[in-house]
Automatic annotation (TrEMBL):
This is Reverse transcriptase Ty1/copia-type domain-containing protein. It comes from Cylindrotheca closterium. It comes from the Eukaryota.
Length: 191
């Protein structure tokens, strides 16, 4: 209970601050996402937890931490499911922005800390090990590639901002990521 009270007191001035973008109507809005997953983190069901954060022009606009619906057979598969979930979300966000007349910068970057998941996203072939996730593979790979609207990039696990959505993290790691997600609303600057 002491930790909760301390956290609330330490972060009472933090919040999300979305400032209007001043410029011409041709300005491109940048969408960037971070995706992560643990592996079989629930000791009872052995389901993994997916987490992601989507930023619009540097401001977090969408985030989620949720148990996956199925038990995965590897950490790569768990990361792959998390990646396909955030891909659906950023495509939806881009569609909403374009409907509102906002020009989105393409390709939309999704950062993932698992090279096997990135490999599955950028290769259209499936093999015996990945056949059971074939539909998710086809969904994401249709939007990646040289002319794709999604670009999947590697990020080190310690720099993956969505890591705090899937695992218990140390105080130092939490303090590292909070300034990227929250603004000191009293001063208008990041803490």
């Amino acid at each position: 209970m002491k930790r909760i009270i301390k956290h609330v007191l330490d972060t009472k001035g933090l919040g999300l601050k979305i400032a209007p973008v001043i410029g011409s109507k041709s300005l491109l809005w940048n969408v960037v996402a971070f995706s992560d997953s643990d592996y079989a983190g629930d000791p009872d069901s052995r389901k993994s937890v997916s987490g992601f954060i989507v930023y619009l022009c540097g401001v977090p606009i969408c985030w989620r931490s949720k148990a996956q619906r199925t038990v995965t057979l590897s950490s790569a598969e768990a990361e792959w499911i998390a990646l396909s979930e955030v891909a659906k979300e950023v495509l939806f966000i881009a569609q909403i922005l374009e409907t509102m007349g906002v020009k989105v910068e393409y390709p939309i970057v999704i950062r993932v800390d698992n090279t096997a998941a990135i490999f599955m996203a950028t290769n259209v072939t499936t093999n015996q090990r990945t056949r059971h996730v074939d539909i998710r593979t086809k969904f994401v790979t249709q939007y990646t590639g040289p002319d794709g609207i999604l670009k999947i990039l590697f990020v080190k696990g310690t720099d993956n901002e969505s890591d705090i959505m899937t695992k218990n993290v140390t105080g130092n790691l939490h303090e590292k990521h909070i300034p990227k997600m929250m603004t000191n609303v009293d001063e208008g600057t990041t803490k």
